[in-house]
Design a protein that fits this description.
Blueprint lengths: L1 H23 L4 H18 L4 H21 L6 H14 L3 H23 L11 H11 L1
Length: 140
C-alpha cells in the first residue's frame, strides 16, 4: 500500500510541476515540500531500511543539478535542483535513469528548437521540469 501511494504521489507531483513550469517557469516549493513529506511517510511505513539509500540518492541528484545551476545560473533554476532531490528520494538509485533521460530529452528539445529557430535560439530558456518529469516516469 505504501509503495502504491508513493508512486501515485510522485505522478501527481510530476503533473503539478510540469504544468506550473510550462506556465510560469517556476517549480512550486509547496508541492515539493508536500511530496517530500508524503514520500518520507511512505518510505518509513513501507521500506524503513531504504531510508538512508533514498536520502543519499536525493543528495546526489540534487547535488548534480546544483553543480549545473552554479556553473550556469542563467541556465537552470533552483526549483529544478529541488525537484531532482525529491526525485532522488522517490526513485532511489533509479534517479540516475531519470536524470539521463531528462538530459537527453532536454538536449533533443533544445536541438529541435535550434533547428526551427536557428542559432540565436541558444539564448532561449526552456523549462526543464517537464524533462525531469519525463525521466521520472521512464524510471518509475
Amino acid at each position: 500500500m505504501a509503495a502504491a501511494l508513493l508512486d501515485a504521489s510522485l505522478i501527481v507531483l510530476l503533473a503539478i510541476v510540469t504544468v506550473t513550469d510550462l506556465r510560469s517557469r517556476l517549480v512550486p516549493d509547496r508541492a515539493l515540500l508536500a511530496a517530500a513529506g508524503i514520500g518520507l511517510a511512505c518510505v518509513i511505513a513501507g521500506q524503513p531500511g531504504a531510508l538512508t539509500e533514498r536520502v543519499a540518492c536525493a543528495l546526489c541528484a540534487g547535488g548534480l543539478l546544483l553543480a549545473a545551476a552554479l556553473a550556469r545560473p542563467d541556465g537552470m533554476g533552483l526549483g529544478d535542483v529541488k525537484l531532482a532531490a525529491v526525485l532522488g528520494f522517490y526513485l532511489g538509485p533509479a534517479v540516475a535513469t531519470a536524470l539521463l533521460v531528462a538530459f537527453g530529452a532536454g538536449a533533443l528539445g533544445g536541438a529541435a528548437i535550434m533547428a526551427v529557430s536557428g542559432w540565436e535560439a541558444r539564448s532561449r530558456a526552456i523549462p526543464f521540469a517537464p524533462f525531469l518529469a519525463l525521466g521520472a516516469l521512464v524510471a518509475l
